[in-house]
Amino acid sequence: MKLLALDTSTDHLSLSLILDDQQIDRAWQVGQQHSELTLPYLRQLLADCQLSLSQLDGIAVGIGPGSFTGLRIGCGIVQGLAFGIDRPVVGINTLAALATATTGPRAFVAMDARMSQVYYAAFERDANGVPHEVIPTGLANPEQVLLPENQDWHGIGNGFAAYGPALQQRLGTQLASITPDRLPLACDIARLARHEFAAGRAVAADALELLYVRDKVAQKTHERAKA
Amino acid sequence: MLTLGIESSCDETGIALYDSEAGLLAHHIHSQIAMHAEYGGVVPELASRDHIRRVLPLTRQCLKEAGKTLADLDAIAYTEGPGLAGALLVGASVAQALGFALDKPVIAVHHLEGHLLSPMLANPAPAFPFVALLVSGGHSQLMAVEGVGQYRMLGETLDDAAGEAFDKTAKLLGLGYPGGPALSKLADKGDAKRFTLPRPMLHSGDLDFSFAGLKTAVLTLANKQAPLDDATRADICAAFQAAMVEVLVSKCQKALKETGMDQLVVAGGVGANRQLRAALDQSAKRRHFKVYYPPLDLCTDNGAMIAFAGSLRLTQAQAAGGYTVRPRWDLATLPAIA
């Protein structure tokens, strides 16, 4: 199986190629230059691997939560690529991607959502390492995140860098370790996407839906009048 | 040569296929007007969220209707600006990636050049040179057009765009958002002579416009007449529209006189206004110039004008790669095409 994975949900740009039993991963800190750099870096990666886009079986992308504009650049690019070569796509929750980067089976993932909030979820990983949500992906103030059951949760994500004390206080002794500096990357997405493709859950490029989580982005006229 | 056009600069997703021999093969528009109406204006984030869900389905629809496949495309054109940054990025991303995947060149098109040249999609079509009146919700300009990329600004609005003035006035008359078309409809039933509103900058001696004062005059008048009955509201609409039309027609006449040109091209959403068209047609007859409009369905934002402008700029097409968008972009900086 040959897969391309791409993530543009943070200030990093990452690409990953799965070529049967090989995986090639790249990541760069690009700030807000995803649109300038994604396709040129992809061209280089394909050239380095002597691969043409049309040899791919599918494409995967981080669908969020994350930077709205970053997500749409990634989604738009993956849609264009997949539509162009007529291959299916898989969208991967960026928090699930991060959950695969923890050591233990239990991951409590929190990403900085700005406005004093975190995108968060808790996952338990199965024997294959695939994470399953036990606390669904949500948005909350760090003091108000829903708590999972049991102990031995590994905290991961830049939410722990932005709101470390508040999250640690909230999770208390349930928290076994913290990795505050890891971002969701294409390498994580590629590994999860391989399972999704194998399970037949790939879809047409049109059906790719982003997971913004923060859906209230403006007030309606009658809401403003009330305020 | 077959060009796919992708427009996503504001609140309409427009996709089209234009063939340089056979003309416009297909075009589809998805308007977000209903979605933004509840918010009283365009919410940029929601606009972007909608665009990304529309581009591929509309593209498939166009290809199917035209009986073409992606392999038939020679180039992909998209709106690079001006417009909402997040919305522009959607069209740009899909277009560039599609070009990358198909190994077909891409063309970054100026949204206003699309509007400006769209009357050339009508039959009969104007030939260069001409004066262009561009009047929409975001823009009000008069330009001298000598050729593709040869644009000289003659005058522009100093405050509100013409379409913006229609919408804002409609809002303060309680006609909802975007109420421009509703205002025009009501104006057709009203008596334009009952009230007289100012004609801002009619005798300013230049080709600039200003519409903010007109809107304020409507507010003052509406307050004086309150509570408004249906007939009075219609009469105020008629008076507003008459003032707008008189200013626009007068400036067009002046622009034609100053440039010595005898063709006028009208583009943008306000170009669909029936009173404006009637007044310009009448003026054209009296003053012996010709006036051209885009087909009615191409007055608002659309993909056809982007595909068409792109096809005229095929020589500038580039290999897909890194890209940015231009939320602000001066039309006069575009390179000329011989």
Describe the protein.
The complex is a heterodimer of chains A (227) and B (338). With 227 residues, chain A is of the alpha/beta class. Chain A has 7 helices and 10 strands. Chain A has helices spanning 34-48, 68-85, 94-99, 159-162, 164-171, 186-198, 221-226; strands at residues 2-7, 12-19, 22-29, 58-64, 89-93, 106-112, 118-125, 131-140, 153-156, 175-179. In chain A, the strands form 2 sheets. Chain A has a 5-stranded mixed beta sheet, sandwiched between helices. Chain A has a 5-stranded mixed beta sheet with strand order 8-7-6-9-10. In chain A, helix 1 crosses helix 2 (68-85). The mean pLDDT of chain A is 97. The longest helix of chain B has 30 residues, at 230-259. Chain B has 2 domains: 2-116 and 298-333, Nucleotidyltransferase, domain 5, CATH 3.30.420; 127-293, ATPase, nucleotide binding domain (Nucleotidyltransferase, domain 5). In chain B, 41% of the residues lie in helices and 19% in strands. Chain B is an alpha/beta fold and 338 residues long. Chain B has helices at residues 33-37, 44-66, 85-102, 111-117, 162-172, 180-187, 212-225, 230-259, 274-287, 304-312; strands spanning 2-7, 12-19, 23-31, 75-81, 106-110, 130-135, 140-147, 150-156, 263-267, 290-292. Chain B is built from 10 helices and 10 strands. In chain B, the strands form 2 sheets. In chain B, strands 3-2-1-4-5 form a 5-stranded mixed beta sheet, with helices on both faces. In chain B, strands 8-7-6-9-10 form a 5-stranded mixed beta sheet, sandwiched between helices. In chain B, helix 6 crosses helix 8 (230-259). Chain A binds chain B through residues 35-40, 42-43, 53, 68-69, 72-73, 75-85, 205-206, 209-210, 212, 217-221, 224, and chain B through 38-40, 43, 45-46, 48-49, 52-53, 55-57, 59-60, 70, 85-86, 89-102, 177, 320-325. Chain A: Residues 31-146 form the Gcp-like domain. Chain A: It comes from Parachitinimonas caeni. Chain A: It holds the Pfam family TsaD. Chain A: This is tRNA (Adenosine(37)-N6)-threonylcarbamoyltransferase complex dimerization subunit type 1 TsaB.
